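Q: I have 376 residues here and want to know how they pack in 3D. Can you give me a structure?
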Amino acid sequence: MGGQNSKPPEFLSVLANKQVKVGEKITLQCKTNIEKLSATWKKNDQKLMCVEGKHTIRNIGTTFILEIENAEETDEGKYTLILEHEKGSGSCSAIVIVELNEWRRIDWEQEMVIRELKSFKISTDSVKELRFLLCGPIGSGKSSVINSIKTVFENRQFINCLAASEVGQSFSEHYRRFTVGSGKSGCLPFAFYDVMGLEAGDLKGVRTDDIIKALKGHVPAEYKFHPLFSITEDNKHYIRSPSVNDKIHCLVNVVPADKITLVDQRVIQKMADIREAASRLRIPQLVLMTKVDKTCLMTKADLSKIYRSRKIREKMLECSVRLGIPMNCIFPIKSYHDETQLDPKINCLILNALRQMILSANDYVEPCSGKLKYAD
């Protein structure tokens, strides 16, 4: 008396994560120690609503199977099987990732893009270097972006620009200027300016009016920002009559893909205020969406599939809605963090974003554009 059904249910094998392409069949299965169990399938913690011709649920002895025909992007998610028996219950889960058709193309030939950018010439002789200001919340990875850009062109790991941790205080208390290249390899006509991370409170982080003054060219490099008061005309460091070479030519918003949902609305509002000022000055704006590897398993495993990822596209859409910036101005990237060797795929994502940044900034300073006369 008793037999196998007197035992509590146990999994002899569990559901395995799956990555499939659009149109392929998804099969999830696991094996238990006993038969005749009550089985419930869930998707994203909600009971799976089976559609005829789409879902098939069956069990063969102690093997429980879910089949999903003709995979679509909406089939992506976490699937859980719950098994119940009078002696107990158990569950196991698996992640299904649906690889979409590529919805944005980029150039994966890094050497060609590096040569193109190294030979780039600014369209006007009056501008000595294109200036980019990186702005975003604490922990977004602004300093890591600058390190990574320098890494690409130096062809070695560059860890000279301090990067803040994901929590805590920003390292960038000063208005730091970073160039690309060296006396040996040749300096490129680009400069990146890093500021303190934006914070929710009014007494923390860099002030929005200071960033706006930096956009206009009133703030010199190495100026130390103060959270309580902004730089004014009577400050000895204040640039009263900035030239075109003092001004910012492109505003680069940096946001973390894995935390965009959690960014405080007060920080988003500060970014909106800065963007509005940049728009009035007709300064071009782009978004670098960092830490893509922390938000998508498929992208973490293979960066070349970043534009086949439903999760990345969703994060870009969310970023577009929260910041009010078009999708084609948002560039998902991964910065160097724990790598010890250079990675061509990391480089290519950075290079393609940088190329657009440079082209946008160059359009802004183009003498015939008529934009600079508004940037006072």
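Q: Anything worth noting?
A: The first strand starts at residue 11 and ends at 13. The chain is about 25% helix and 25% strand.
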